[in-house]
Specification:
Layout lengths: L9 E3 L23 E3 L6 E3 L3 H16 L1 H18 L8 H15 L8 H24 L3 H28 L12 E3 L6 H21 L4 H21 L2 H17 L3 H21 L6 H8 L12 H14 L9 H5 L9 H29 L4 H20 L6 H11 L7 E3 L2 E3 L14
Antiparallel strand pairs: 1-4, 2-3, 5-6
Main location: membrane
Subcellular location: Membrane
Protein name: O-antigen ligase
Length: 443
Amino acid sequence: MTSFTAQFTPVRTGPHATQQPSFPRHASTGLRTAGSVARRSGGQRLQTSHLPGLGLICAVAFVAAWSPRLAAIYGGLAAAIAILITWRPPRPRVADILAGLTAMWALTSTLVGLADPSITRVPAYLYASALLVFLAARHVVRERAQLLPVALAHLAGCATTAVALITGARDGGVQRDAIFDYNIRYGLDGININYTSYTMVTGAILAVILFRVGPASRALRAALLGTLLVFAYAILLTGSKGATLALFLGASFLVLARFGPQLMWTVVWVCVPVLILLIPLKAASSFQAGAQWLDGLFGRETGDLSGRLEVWPIAASAWAEHPIAGMGPGVFRMDNPLQIGPHNLLLTVGTDLGLVGVILYGGTVAAALALAAKQAAQTGKVLAGFAVITLLPVWMSGHWEQSQGAWLVLALISTITVKDVVRRPGRHRLAAGGGPAGEFGRA
């Protein structure tokens, strides 16, 4: 992950995302403070004292998608500075408290136990950095006028990456015979191919969220649809089965949610945790048939999901030997005979941070999603459910636990409270100015 612009090399592989918005209250009076800059859209205001922090978070949002290396080095530090320079009273919710505890637990794990700090220091810092981005986004973004630039900055980073990938694939020396010829994969030089594909998935999630609760501008909505198509094409070029499946599941969820949003949210809330817990732990038995089918999807069959079915039992056994505190961040990757990571969210966090880390990490994600889904409006549940079901294949088969972009999008979802669409005969009239209605309180 050292460079963004360089050569683009196709890779052959073999076996082995009518009510005005409410405003945050300041102090005990609930009045907006003076010295703010008026915004023309929706009469919202941005305090001048908050602009530096907002700008810094926008920069983090862009870099998180554009340059993984820069994000890994500077993202957490920039997020911490954004929190400090955005002077406003902190109002932590359960999600914020759990995120802070998770970051502290990851950093503490480098100081305790038998793991070599030279191995655990960098992975622990990456955990803490991603969670700091989550905390900073929730601290800075408290109204619609603040959410839009952050979301658009991250989308811009994802789109820049996608265009670079597509351009490089077009100019590459080896061409595919078909769009689903997954035996030839395209990636960016110095950046893991799966990381690039997962970035597109996260960008697609954010594009759908903005389409549902963003401005009513037809031009912007058309641009979001175009961006989704670009992301989909870029994912196909990467040849990532997990990312392709993620797009399919997300699109299917949105279609089904139109007929039963509450039912779909309930299905996701119940089924996703069960799948996350059972699939990696039962990979060698009941999941074997399904794994073989997935392995042969679009060709590039390896017989073991590119080594995942082989490494999952090893990771589960290693976690069982250190159940409470884990082995330490990054230790399993160095110590197991295959010399690869678990490629599964539960097993990665379990081996890195133990049961304590799994509870804190999973609790943070669940609490953030619950903030969006608890509203009476169904749209919050649809967006939260869509994000979960779309990320499920990534969580099950990849390494995305330290992604600053994923935690940023989760933070933005958690700050949204939305009103239902007001249905009128013959068309859908939206509650605020003919566009998707949105309220940004302190979720």
